[in-house]
Amino acid sequence: MKELLERKKGLRRSILIVDDDYIAREILGKILKDQYEISYAENGVIALDIIKRDKLKLSLVILDLHMPQMDGYSLLKLLRSDNELRRIPVIVLISEKGAEVESLKIGAADFITKPFDMPEVICARVSHSIELAEDSVIIHETERDELTGLFHKEFFFQYGKRLDELNNHMPMDAVMIDINRFHIVNELYGRRYGDQVLRTVGESLHELVSKNGGIACRRDNDQFYVYLPHNDELKGKLPHYIAVIDKRINDSSISLRFGVYSDDGSEKCMEHRFDYARLACQKLRNSYVSCFNFYNDEQHSKELYAERLINDMDKALSEKQFKVYYQPKYSIRGSRPQLSSAEALIRWFHPEFGMVSPGQFISLFEENGLIQKLDRFVWNEAAAQIKLWKDKYGTDIPVSVNVSRVDMFNAHLVEILESITRQNGLKNAELLLEITESAYTDDSDQIIETVNTLRKCGFRIEMDDFGSGYSSLNMLTALPIDALKLDMKFIRTICEKPKSARLVGIMIDIARLLEVPVIAEGVETKEQMELLKKLGCDIIQGYYFSKPLPPEEFGTLIEKELKEKDHAYN
């Protein structure tokens, strides 16, 4: 490229004249020698050696078609089939009618007729062919990634749209390829090794589009796009393509992810196809099951639905579409179950989608941090409700609220919670804080420090979903908690599977060692409740006693509980 630019600035270009006729060679040499450096060859074999030797500095080959040993047709075909030599333009010398058409078909840039006349026309044809070839090389170098030889992203989309127009929007598939954790490869093995991996992927993709049609580009540092004619068999062929690339890379620590949008006939534009291919690829993040994923309409609908929920959240909060329900928790340690507390559970009544399950939006909001807004809404609602029940019924009903992992890393968490209890005239102990067991393992030191601070301020901590996380027994002794809440999956089979009952018994024994009460959620039958009581469980929550209730219906339970207490005392 550097040499080409220097020639463009005015340095003399080199021309090779190939002809077995000495006089013809000399005549052409004299016509061109004032402007160009001239070299000669008397047949195709000698010419090929010179071309291979001087390929970087040669600007043009003038080639006679009829020569001994290797004729011009054979040499021209050979040059056009070689990736390195095909950039050199060839002007053919013709003396018979019709030869110009055939030579142009197999790759000649232009032709000069014999016998030679009008030297100025010959010079013009030579100059024009060299300029066209050099401009083509410069464009080629500009539009392609230097490392992989694939298109740059901008040119890729230009050519792709042109392909769509020329082929009358023929069905096309879009594929995105991403190298997993490529930055780690560079850090561990160095940039040179990383570049070789990229070259290998680039070469493999170039071969893929050469065989199947289409185009490929290097989209980003470690990402690639392929746009190729639709193939119903792509899903079956993809594992073979992946295996070929893996074999060439020859490094088990490097893996690729393929996201595919397979044309469904809906005539989506090229950009949208790759948006969907990228979404399919992103679904494979942290997946060890598959290395490729095909986008489909169901996935698209889910993405749109999730996006709507995210976009509608602030409006939902301001319009009070979210409602806090309360599921009662009953102490079963005495002769009769007694209402002891409740858990606050969020419900979303969307004006368009109706009742949206928490399973659909909680994890979604956790992924993008919106869960903090929702948690604070629940905390405020629950605290206000505790105060309302206290004022109305003259009794304390503590309420458990969820504290998400994201909340635990908020430096202002303690002051936020204390501000809420203070504004509602509550003791901190009346707002119970549920933290999942797995949250303690994210950054155990920081979590434990935060929890210790909360407990010093009077808040009580319940470890939620105990048994589903990764706490070691040794770690449990260091965790600051005030109650263990068993994961409901252990409760479902407690009556049918003796092993489940034994496991629950062991977890209750652990709680006894830690001197904290045990809460079992998801209790649905009398048999489950009686077995849990026998095993030593302290508190029960679940449909056996009540489903989650709106505040006014929960108030009915409080009234019932107060009446039963009065009756017991009398």
Helix content: 40-55%
Q: What characteristic shape results from the CA principal axes? A: rod-shaped
The beta-strand count equals 20
Walk across the major sheet and give the strand order. 12-13-15-16-17-18-19-20
The span between the termini is 101 Å
| Low-pLDDT stretches | none
Query: What's the tally of helices?
Result: 22
Major beta sheet, specifics?
8 strands, mixed, barrel
Q: Provide the gyration radius in Å.
A: 38 Å
Strand content: 15-25%
Write down the overall mean pLDDT.
87
Report the structural category.
alpha/beta
Task: Characterize the structure shown.
The protein is 49% helix and 20% strand. The protein has 570 residues and is an alpha/beta fold. The strands form three sheets. The protein has an eight-stranded mixed beta barrel, surrounded by four helices. The longest helix is centred in the N-terminal third of the chain and has 25 residues, at 119-143. The mean pLDDT is 87.
A few lines on this structure:
By secondary structure, this protein is an alpha/beta fold.
Name a few traits of the molecule.
20 strands; 20% strand; alpha/beta; 8-stranded mixed barrel; 570 residues
Topology, element by element:
Blueprint: H1 2-8, E1 13-18, H2 22-32, E2 36-41, H3 44-53, E3 58-64, H4 72-81, E4 90-94, H5 99-105, E5 110-113, H6 119-143, E6 151-152, H7 153-166, E7 172-179, H8 182-189, H9 191-212, E8 215-220, E9 223-229, H10 234-249, E10 256-261, H11 270-282, E11 292-294, H12 297-318, E12 322-331, E13 338-350, E14 354-356, H13 358-368, H14 371-393, E15 399-402, H15 405-408, H16 413-423, E16 431-436, H17 444-456, E17 461-466, H18 473-476, E18 483-486, H19 489-492, H20 498-514, E19 518-521, H21 526-535, E20 539-541, H22 551-569
Parallel strand pairs: 1-2, 1-3, 3-4, 4-5, 6-8, 10-11, 13-15, 15-16, 16-17, 17-18, 18-19, 19-20
Antiparallel strand pairs: 7-9, 7-10, 8-9, 12-13, 12-20, 13-14
Helix pairs in contact: 8-9, 9-10
